[in-house]
Amino acid sequence: LLTAISVERCVGALWPFWCRCHRPKFLSAIMCSLLWTLAGVLAGLVYFVCDLSHSKHCWTVLATLCFLNFFFFTPFMVLSNVILFIKLRHRSWQHHTARLYVVIFFAVFFFLLFGIPLSVQIFLNFFVYINFVFEICLLLAALNSSINPVIYVLVGSCGKSRFRGSVKVALQRVFEDR
Asked: Which parts pass through the membrane (predicted)?
């Protein structure tokens, strides 16, 4: 989903007229549904092939996950965020629009920093298993899962001398669309 959000924001920044006038109305909902379905199928495959049956095809399933993660989702996410970052640097955007891009940038940055190590470790487990490293990667993945609300609140309250108001106000400030 983070890849889909990044790509959609990049397309919206590069071709705003097309996005407002010609983009299919339900494209985001359809893409999110397809991505959730893909995630469910892949998680189900890992559960049934690797956990329940301990099949010899477990390596194939996990290698497919690693391939999708490293060679499809992550490159699209990084490329679209680099394009957004370059576009933000070369144009004077209004402050409230830039906040959303900052949130997406930090979410992707922390995903790359905290989320990717678990995928790398899962792949490396086929060659050497180090319990301590795997537990650190699990901790980083848990941290990645919980850091996004903190990013939203901090970016939403950015520019204030100190945080005033509620978390709801900060979230509204980040996601306002004018």
From this structure: 26-49, 61-86, 98-120, 126-155
